[in-house]
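Lecture 7 notes: from sequence to structure.

We start with a single chain of 341 residues. Read the sequence below before looking at the structure.
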Amino acid sequence: MPYQATWLRRFTGVFDPDQAQVLAEAISDIYGELARARDIRELKRVVQELAEAQKRTEVRVEELAEAQKRTEVRVEELAEAQKRTEVRVEELAEAQKRTEVRVEELAEAQKRTEVRVEGLAARMEELAEAQKRTEVRVEGLAARMEELAEAQKRTEQRLEGLAQAQEAMAQALASLARAQEESQRQIQALARAQEESQRQIQELTRQMVEVRRELGGLGRSMGYALENEAYRMLPAFLAEKHGIQVTERFVRTYIGDEEINLFGRGWRDGKEVLIVGEVKVRLEEGRREDALEQLEEKARVVQEAYPGEELLLLLVTHHAHPGILQRAQERGILVVQSFEW
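Now the structure, written as tokens:
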């Protein structure tokens, strides 16, 4: 048709090619129908009004296209900023995804608008019957486009808010990095202090070992002194207090692998006995090494070496706890305290 090419040129650039073709064909058909009408002037008036409505639609569509371009520019800028920060904050990436979803929703709204514009072509076929209804529908379409423009403005505001939030997040990450550096310095200082404390503990441990060694030497010296005193005092004391006659002087010896502090022979109640004794500076309850059990263990070794011999178990000390004295009496062990002789 002669007018179809003209309408096609007008619509090309505003709508996509398929939409432009459909609109051009529809208007050309309408124009052909109206051309056959008797009132050519009325047809021109209708066409003129349709052209004016179409111009308004084109203006609104161009404004929406410009707004869409600005949105695309903003989205591209935000995408670049997002690439710079997505390593530092994954949460912002999630927010960006939500923004993309909103942009996709806007694209879907744009598609729905295009569908409505396509519907306008179908409605234009009814222009011959009711031009007023067409204008009302065009005005309704303009109102929807205005709503879409408002929605576009709100989207731009949200994008700007997201950019500000992204900047604030970057500042917060910088502050966190500084705090992390300070924490690292404090940890290093604490590690140095811990090393110094460990060194001091090691030195104190060494000194404690030395003190224990010295105390052990002092304890052994006191033990040897008590043994030497017992060698001199026990024979007379045992004879006077317990009726035990020592027939062989006491010696310090080894039987098997056991050291025997006091070892000698004597008579008690008309029977010969082997005297097996242990010397302890103090006999106290609760010690890790039990003096009574040690003496009994040594007595078992002596009994194996001297089978058939009767043994007399003896403990010599400076001081014995009453509990030790009672347990020793129950086991038949004689305890002699140095203050008794």
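The domain at 243-340 is CATH 3.40.1350.10 (Trna Endonuclease; Chain: A, domain 1). Keep this in mind for problem set 3.
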